[in-house]
Write a structure and sequence with these properties.
The protein has 13 helices and 13 strands. By secondary structure, it is α+β, with helices and mostly antiparallel strands. It folds into three domains: 116 residues, Alpha-Beta Plaits (2-Layer Sandwich), CATH 3.30.70; 98 residues, Chitinase A, domain 3 (Roll); 187 residues, Orthogonal Bundle (Trigger factor, domain 2), CATH 1.10.3120.10.
Length: 454
């Protein structure tokens, strides 16, 4: 059908396809369309299927030409791309758009141009010797002690304190409260009953922990409290309020002793406190190793991005952002765009503003993925069945599932290919780390390491 074609590369992984269709081919398509119209159109005074072409053209001329042009465009683009290089094929989510207003006439050749996005060219520079600073961190006795205290907290028993007891930090308080206006009347909507929190944590809107310390059960008092201009609650920031607070219950936490009995209460796999401590140490060491590995891989990715060049097509970024929006809606249980808009409005955002906020992160994620995929492809990494089985076994050992159950879960979700790709990427990352230039980073505590890298 086509007489000539030309594909021109544009910016941002977009191309321009220019096509010329001979006049005779345009006429052929137009005549075929006329015959179809003649068979289906009913016009008074003519038998069905016997409407003269001149009558059809007089009555439907503009529609006929527009219809014919649409068919010619579709067929010409399909033919032009049939044997084109894969790098010149449009992305699945990129629809070719017509450039300008085409000049279509039956008495001359028809030339037009369309633009569309293609898969981006990926240039990854020399990745050997990427510099990676490894933080110097060790698990200390204080880290183990903190984990043990957390376990004691989770296994604590809460009991009522005696009637004469005074509230103290660490106690569990239950209070009723309400605000007073300048006339000493209750401010509507501020009443709250049976509000429970741990004194000293600040887990209450008015931050009245210190004011409750020293109160006895069933005691009531009026508290006047001023809040700074930068207070976390905008409703209280820069204001002074009067509160009537009544302490209705005081409970205290009884922490269990650090002994074999506690270890056995935590899990039947522990027989002694020493067993529990050994497992805590092992878990902390694993968390540290995982965190350091994550930081190393992050540094590798940073180095790759600095050495890589990818012009992302707009449609690819748009598809990534659309997927993130759908994931957000699914996580929040939102089924319509209207609901999403309303929920975002509560936080002072719009859908467009959220997407714009996500855009740099989306572009970064796509670029990282494409660079790693290119290196994995160049390195011809494979995932054997033995490696797949080993991964099933590893996951089963870290969970309550059997190997067969882990495998069945991946099959149920249709995620086998995803797991294979992840194993390939793990191999690639191991090679990248092996070729990296490791150097000692700053000394940092385990707590700070986790905090700074969240």
């Amino acid at each position: 059908m086509i007489a000539s074609k030309n594909i021109e590369k544009l910016e941002h992984s977009m191309v321009k396809l220019s096509v010329t269709v001979p006049c005779a081919e345009s006429r052929k398509e137009y005549d075929a369309l006329l015959r179809e119209y003649s068979k289906s159109v009913r016009i008074d005074g003519f038998r069905s299927g016997h409407v003269p072409a001149s009558v059809l053209e007089r009555k439907f001329g503009d529609s006929l030409r527009l219809d014919a042009m649409g068919r010619i465009l579709e067929k010409a683009v399909e033919e032009a791309l049939k044997d084109a290089d894969p790098k010149e094929q449009p992305l699945g989510y990129s629809t070719p758009s017509l450039e300008g207003e085409p000049d279509f006439a039956l008495d001359k050749d028809f030339s037009f141009a369309v633009k569309y996005d293609v898969f981006p060219a990926i240039e990854v520079g020399d990745w050997k010797g990427i510099e990676v600073a490894k933080p110097q961190c060790e698990i200390g006795p204080e880290d183990e002690a903190r984990e043990l205290e957390d376990i004691r907290e989770r296994n604590a028993v809460v009991v009522e304190r005696e009637a004469a007891a005074k509230a103290a930090k660490g106690d569990i308080a239950t209070v009723n409260f309400h605000e007073l206006d300048v006339d000493g009347q209750t401010v509507a909507g501020t009443e709250r009953e049976d509000f429970t929190f741990e004194i000293g944590t600040g887990y209450n809107a008015y931050k009245i922990d210190d004011e409750i310390v020293g109160m006895k059960r069933d005691e009531e008092k009026t508290v006047e409290k001023s809040y700074p201009a930068d207070f976390e609650s905008s409703e209280l920031a820069g204001k002074t309020v009067k509160l009537v607070v009544k302490l209705t219950k005081i409970k205290e936490k009884k922490l269990p002793a650090l002994d074999d009995e506690l270890a056995q209460d935590v899990s039947e796999k522990y027989k002694t406190l020493a067993d529990l401590k050994a497992d805590i140490r092992a878990q902390l060491e694993k968390r540290l190793a995982d965190k350091l590995k994550s930081l190393e891989e992050k540094a590798i990715v940073e180095g790759l991005l600095a050495r890589s060049k990818v012009e992302l097509p707009e449609s690819m970024v748009a598809a990534e952002l659309a997927m993130r929006l759908e994931n957000l809606k699914r996580q929040m249980g939102i089924d319509t765009e209207d609901k999403l808009e309303r929920i975002l409005a509560y936080s002072g955002k719009t859908r467009e503003a959220l997407v714009e906020e996500w855009k740099p992160s989306a572009e970064r994620a796509i670029t990282t993925r494409l660079a790693l995929e290119r290196l994995a492809e160049d390195g011809k990494y494979e995932c054997s069945e033995a490696e797949l089985e080993a991964e099933f076994s590893r996951q089963a050992a870290e969970s309550s599932l059997s190997v067969d159950e882990v495998k069945a879960e991946y099959e149920k979700r249709g995620s086998m290919d995803y797991l294979r790709d992840r194993i390939k990427e793990d191999k690639l990352m191991a090679d990248l780390l092996a070729a990296a230039k490791l150097k000692k980073g700053d000394k940092v505590s385990f707590v700070d390491l986790l905090k700074d890298s969240e």
